[in-house]
Amino acid sequence: MEQRNPRVRWLFVWAVAAVWIVAILARLSYLQLFSYSEYLAKAQHQQQRIFEISPKRGALYDRKGRELAVSIPMDSVFSDPAEITDVSMVANLLARVLDVPAEELETKIREARTPVRLARKLAPETVERIKGMNLRGVFFQKENRRIYPQRGLAAHVLGYVDVDEKGLGGIEYSLDQQIRGRPGKMMVMADGRRRWYDRRESAADPGASVELTIDQTIQYIAEKELARAIEETHAKAGSVVLQDPNTGELLAAANWPTFDPNRAGEYSDDVRMDRAVSAAYEPGSTFKVITLAGAIENGVAVPTELVDCQMGKVLVGGRVIHDWHPFGVLSVEQILAHSSDVGAIKVALHLGGPRFYDTIRRFRFGQLTGIELPGENRGLLRPIENWSASSIGSLAMGQEVSVTPIQIISAISAIANGGTLYRPRVILEIRGGRSRPELPAGEPRQATDGRTAAEMRKMMEQVVLEGTGIPAHLDGYTAAGKSGTAQKIDPATRRYSSNQYVASFVGFAPVNNPVVTILVVLDSPVGGHHGGQVGGPVFKRIAEQVLAYLDVPHDVPSPSGTERAKDGPAPPKIASRAAARGRARSDSAEKRYEAAEMDHAERSSTPARTVSFGPEGAVAVPDLAGQTVRGVTEACLRLGLVPSLIGNGVALEQFPEAGAEVLRGGRVTVRFGRTGGQLPASARGNTN
Fold first, then answer.
1. 392-407 residues labelled b (16+ CB within 10 A) or e (exposed)
2. Pair type for strands 642-646 and 667-673
3. First to last CA, the chain
4. How many whole angstroms separate alpha carbon 553 and alpha carbon 510?
5. What is the rounded CA–CA span in Å between residue 307 and residue 391?
């Protein structure tokens, strides 16, 4: 047998090796160059677990820098299954503290390959109990939780968030991208045996803070008086909105029913709805302000012009419309004061459909106002080509048109400030954050001319002095306004209901230098349902407290504190005032206004509202130490004092001191915080 050459053998071995090496290199090259991303993703999926760390949401403040919504760090509990030897024991111990079924926790731990979150944002006492157990493989990670320190105050404006701090309502929703910030990340590394060996974190970027136009004290007054009105009238729902007529800024926006945004999930969608911007209703007689403003601006009517109201009946487009009272001849000014439907219809007929429609559009009815709150309803205003023959009669008295509270108060503010219609605003400033968003633009527009606005202010003042707004008459201030009583549509018959109404009153004060416009809307009050009757007193109570709080000087004489405490506010002498002006009224009308005066006097002199004063008309300042901002505000307003609030937290110092006697309407300055200190010298002064 011929022996093979060893050299040939070696060549064969080297050839096989070369082929093998080339194959290995080819495979490695393929994996490295063409499959790198795929295998890297698989490795990271096996070795890494990424948790999102929610960023700290920016705070929400009122116009004076007081906190309305803040985020605070809280502990969430995690478990590392690689370090837990007895899963059942750990699950059973944690279940007792977390109030979660032990089986659910055990399943979550066993199925996890890397650390897993067991519960989020725990209360401090719960965290301490878990830490006391000293369980191996259980650790904590900080996450932020949204807190609303004033609970339900301005809930619909602020909105609310979910467990991940994503905005779901109000400003929290509309500015969520800016307030939320950029989330951080926590990456957990595990080895081949799924054991955690490293953790890396990237910090979250905090969100922007927002300063609102809302004033916390004014908001509290609005909510308190709205709740009282709901209790007294048993209305199904209601809204109170306050606006600065010279800027369009909302000072307060209260709704009923309301909710606590700290527990928003416990309430229905209907309760969480912001009625001030989303609930459209027929305005009724408050819309007569728009009707008469259009007529005066277009030169078809003047306040002193007489109109035959035909004893309460008029035919429009083949439809007979009845007035709420059989009026005879009234001036245009009296049509507004006495809220004559027939009078307003005849003025609108003289104005004509096209000019009337143009007036309504210039006040931006049927259009979005552009307010920064979500869910705004544009209301309903049909194009003029879709009007029926009788539509002009319905529109003249506030039917066949629906508005939102924010639309009607903006329109009346335009009358108050001289004719300029401002876009309503709730955002004053946005501070910080990664981006600086542009606030919605909205140049003021001229809704009516200055002369017409001045005439309408005078006419609306007569509504309060001599007409349906008598219960809204203020002590120490002039006021102008208009009541509204609108029938609701019965869903069963699709016709106007005979016993369901929306009662409203809108007005401003003082008349010649308006500081605040106030709208009160009550849905389906029980018993009395006329706007002036149920909304007027609410307007009065709110206006007097807010004007005092804003240090607005009186523009008419006011009863002294002693007289007011003894006899209650004296209603204006309507009958004698009307006689001096030579106003003719029917006997039935006289009786109706006398009844309104009596009702107003009875409401004002209710024993529960009486304040006891010292021998010189002074009231003793209460001890406010340790109370919250809300508690101090309520205590001061209950005694007729004006609170001046500095800082946040609990009351640390007050001036004047507890027990000092101060005249009703005097100022009490209170400093809040967590540590001691002195009031600034500027806060120590005359309290009268």
1. bbbbbbbbbbbbbbbb
2. parallel
3. 132
4. 9
5. 20
**Spatial CA neighbour of 148 closest among 157, 139, 140, 138:** 157
CB 206 within 8 A of CB 432: yes
Show the DSSP H helices in 238-364 as ranges. Answer: 269-272, 275-278, 288-297, 332-338, 341-351, 353-362
Q: What is the largest CA-CA distance in the chain?
A: 150
Give the count of alpha carbons within 13 A of 80, CB side only.
20
With a CB cutoff of 8 Å and minimum separation 6, the contacts of 58 are 178, 179, 181, 206, 207, 208, 209, 210, 431, 432, 433
**Could you give the CA distance from residue 236 to residue 639 in angstroms, rounded to a whole number?**
30
Strands (E), 424-465: 427-431, 445-446
Mean pLDDT per 10-residue segment, the chain (688 residues): 68 85 82 72 64 80 93 86 84 88 87 80 88 87 87 95 90 92 69 58 80 95 96 95 96 96 93 95 95 96 94 91 92 95 95 95 95 95 94 94 96 96 95 61 84 95 95 95 91 84 95 96 92 95 95 80 35 33 35 38 34 50 87 80 77 86 76 60 40
Task: Please give the torsion angle defined by the CA atoms of residues 606, 611, 615 and 616, in that order, rounded to the nearest 10 degrees.
Answer: -110
Query: CA-CA distances (angstroms) from residue 462 to 305, 465, 625?
Result: 16, 5, 45
The dihedral built from the CA positions of residue 552, 333, 286 and 534, taken in this order, carries a sign that is positive
**Under a CB-based contact definition with an 8 Å cutoff, are residues 52 and 156 in contact?**
no
pTM: 0.74
CA triplet 665, 666, 668: central angle to 5 degrees?
Answer: 125
